User: Fold this.
Amino acid sequence: MRRHLDIRAGLVALFLAAVAALGAVVWRTGYVQALQPLSQAGESDLALAADRLVTQLSRYREFAVLMADHPALEARRAGGPRAAADNALLEATDRTGTAAAFFLSLDGRILAASGPGDPFDMASTEVIGRARQGALGAGLGMMGDIRVFTFAAPHFGADGTVAGTLIVVVDLAALERDWRGSLPTVYFTDPGGRIFVTNRSELLFWREATSATLIAPEGRRVALSVDRVGGHEIRQQDLSPYIPAEAVYLTDHLPVIGLTGHALIDVTAAKRLASLQAAAAVAICLFFGALLFLATERRRTLALANQRLEERVSARTRALSETNAALRREVSERQEAERQLTRAQADLVQAGKLSALGQMSAGISHELNQPLMAIRSYAENGTAFLDRGRPDAAAGNFARISQMAGRMGRIIQNLRAFARQEAAPATEVGLAGIVDATLDLVETRIRAEGVSVDWTAPATPIIVIGGEVRLGQVVLNLITNALDAMAESVERRLRIRITEDGMGHALLTVQDSGPGIEEPERIFDPFYSTKAVGAAEGMGLGLSISYGMIQSFGGKLRGANAEGGGAIFTVELTNAKAAA
Assistant:
């Protein structure tokens, strides 16, 4: 008995080890597959940031070329008054947002300037030298503590030769204001590897010594962990809370402005997707293993019962044989009769035993055959789809296995719909359906936290202009924020209403019974949050992002404290009928 227990324990341990190995393989495969679209999206973001920077600088390059031939500068070079040339440069820099402009003679004298400053401190000798040779010079520089990009355009005289130089200084910090803090982390380095332009200010003036080492402005060296996964370079760093700790590293050289673009794309989403796939694979294997273990245990129990029955029959047969032998010694006719009786009894026992076995086998087969065959078929199809690199099709087969839990199936269907990236323009969307689907997603949490939901869909469907997935994200954010706000409240009541204002707008209100809003005027500011700092508590971007989504639909999002206590958020959207 002990030996059988040890064998079963060993088989279970071997099965669990195999399931763990399979989960690790599925996680690794899913992670590698998820990195590909993540890297492609990151390359697009990096290219967009690079194009934006090049486009912004190109505007000032054109300004330098055009302004170099301004009549006021020509007059100044010919010996005219400086005040007119200074005013022309000042007026031009004010209109274009240029930090400063200087008009130099060939011998380096400042003939005109938009303000105080030394152009030779801001523009390198190489940049000015290119302009004196008749070409457009461009490069990085510093104006005190301000990072600048300088353009040097040649000023041609009447004979077609270079007669002067116009230096145009662009404040790089002003260009960064439009995209500072946006995702993902992007920065641009000069030929020496120094970070000169970025949307993360804490990275300014860091220098890349090697692919695995960064040097801080004060000279401190920071080592990075670099790994390659599926052809992608993965960097692990601890530089800032706003820089992903583990990210795909991408680069793009920009010869037009002499900079190199870099991007760090957070891999958290790819890891989360891989973990979900691995968890699904492990759960299915454990489910099948449990079914197989139960079936094996039933068969083993039946075999033990049959063995005990056979032992009892054998013992009884031996007793009867001994009795028959004694009777045969006394009466031969009785002995013959006893032998026939013994054979008849043995036949009846065997027939009864086989009948019992047939009935039990039929019951077990009827109970297990059909679900096992269906589960095995879906599992084989799911495995085949995974082998072909089609995880979505495999997920469909796995969803069919779990249809016996209909509630779980509906939740899985809703989760798959909110996640996809919605790139389509705003269309007509049923507002009540969005609310129903969102409440379905958070129903488990609502029940667990004892929240009373006051929600009744309007009698007449209200159709608005918006994006189904993005609008669902907004509603989910408002509801989960309300649940978070009521976590410490004695009375937890969530009230949701959809109305029309009679002016072509539909209004969705979400009201909670929490403590209310401390600073209503700041709730839509990025990174503003009343929650504790931490990955699980949010970064204060939910309402800011929701505000932007609603604005993209032509609507409005408002938040205030309700008269009876708690907070109330109102989403105002264009009614589709009014729009038509």
Notes: Residues 292-400 form one domain. Confidence is low (pLDDT under 50) at residues 344-371, 403-415, 533-537. The radius of gyration is 39 Å. The chain has four domains: 30-58+180-266, 68-175, 292-400, 406-579.
